[in-house]
Amino acid sequence: MRKLLLRIIGALLALSVLVAVGCSQEADPMNETTKAPEAATEETTDAPAETASEALSCRDPEDMPLINPNAKARGDISYLAIGHSLNVNATYYLYDFLKEAGYENVEVAVLYYSGCSLQQHFDFFRKDEPAYRLYYNGKGSWVITEGYTMDMALRMKQWDYISFNTGVAGSAIPNSLEPHFTEVEKHVRQFQPNAHFFWNSFWAMREEGEYQERFRERYSGGTQIDMYNDILETTKVAMRTHPDMEFLVPEGTAIQNMRTSRYGDGPLLIRDGGHLSYSVGYYLGAIVLAKSIADIDIDASTFIPEEFREEFTDEVVHGLKAAAKDAFADPWHVTENPYQ
């Protein structure tokens, strides 16, 4: 009996070693998901060789928080998005949701460059190029300023939260993040030692009607649902390889959920090839972002954009809130929406 017990203990110890080795193999820096894209420009060769693969961990992206684990008690809150027009869409009503939730001083900003990829962000900060437009809302209305550099936005204040994402096309290519994501994150951290970083997982483009050609230009991997799934894979790479990303925002899944509703993929939700509609689209993007950043109570929210109030029937609001809540319940799969 004693010999048998010793054999069992030995087998368990051996198994634990194998598990540990397997985990480190999954974090192999030579894994294809950490390579720079083959189509990168000459600028890529100037980037430092160190990539985020050196920080690979065994955490499962599917277990990562969707709601900020450091959500502040009601008081002051500030957020900077480093991105492009989809960030502008998703943040448009964020100020309103945060004020409704009880925050006193709210500052929301987007460092915008059209379709900006992580490689472009890298090039811009390295050259200190004033390529950006800054969208800023600190008093309930948006102020737009041209000619910003990344460092100007990072010197504005010590931001509570800063989000990262990549361009629309790159968001569906999991191996397109490095080495630039690592370098951009490192640069931002130099200015913002205490900010909480997170990843914003955006939505797939429209592929129907007049937008088919543009869809094919941006994505050649199949249908819209294929693009959505590839964006999720990129999100998993970002979360697995960048431990500083404290949580992720399931924007894309919320939008895909709403696409199963009566709205479908039409202009009432997506106004063109990829931008959200000014009414229900902007609302859904912002309520998801507010839930992730501040853990607002989606059901309790009564905010409605005044200029579009007639569109927001009880049935519509119920469908939008269901799309958002279902994205948090299952961020990796599409859920049928009740608004039919």
Question: What's the topology here?
Answer:
Blueprint: H1 2-26, E1 76-83, H2 85-91, H3 94-100, E2 105-112, H4 118-127, E3 132-137, E4 142-148, H5 150-155, E5 161-164, H6 180-191, E6 196-200, H7 212-218, H8 224-241, E7 245-249, H9 251-258, H10 280-294, H11 314-329
Parallel strand pairs: 1-2, 1-5, 5-6, 6-7
Antiparallel strand pairs: 2-3, 3-4
Helix pairs in contact: 4-6, 9-11, 10-11
CATH class: Alpha Beta
Q: In CATH terms, what is the fold-level topology?
A: Rossmann fold
Number of domains: 1
The average pLDDT value, as a whole number, equals 85
Task: Return residue spans where pLDDT drops below 50 for at least 5 consecutive residues.
Answer: 1-56
Distance between the termini: 65 Å
CATH architecture type: 3-Layer(aba) Sandwich
By helix and strand content, what is the structural category?
alpha/beta
What percent of residues are in strands? Answer: 5-15%
Instruction: Determine Rg (CA atoms, Å).
Output: 21 Å
Strand elements, count: 7
Estimated helix fraction: 25-40%
Shape: globular
Biggest sheet layout = 7 strands, mixed
The ordered H/E elements are HEHHEHEEHEHEHHEHHH
**Count of alpha/pi helices:** 11
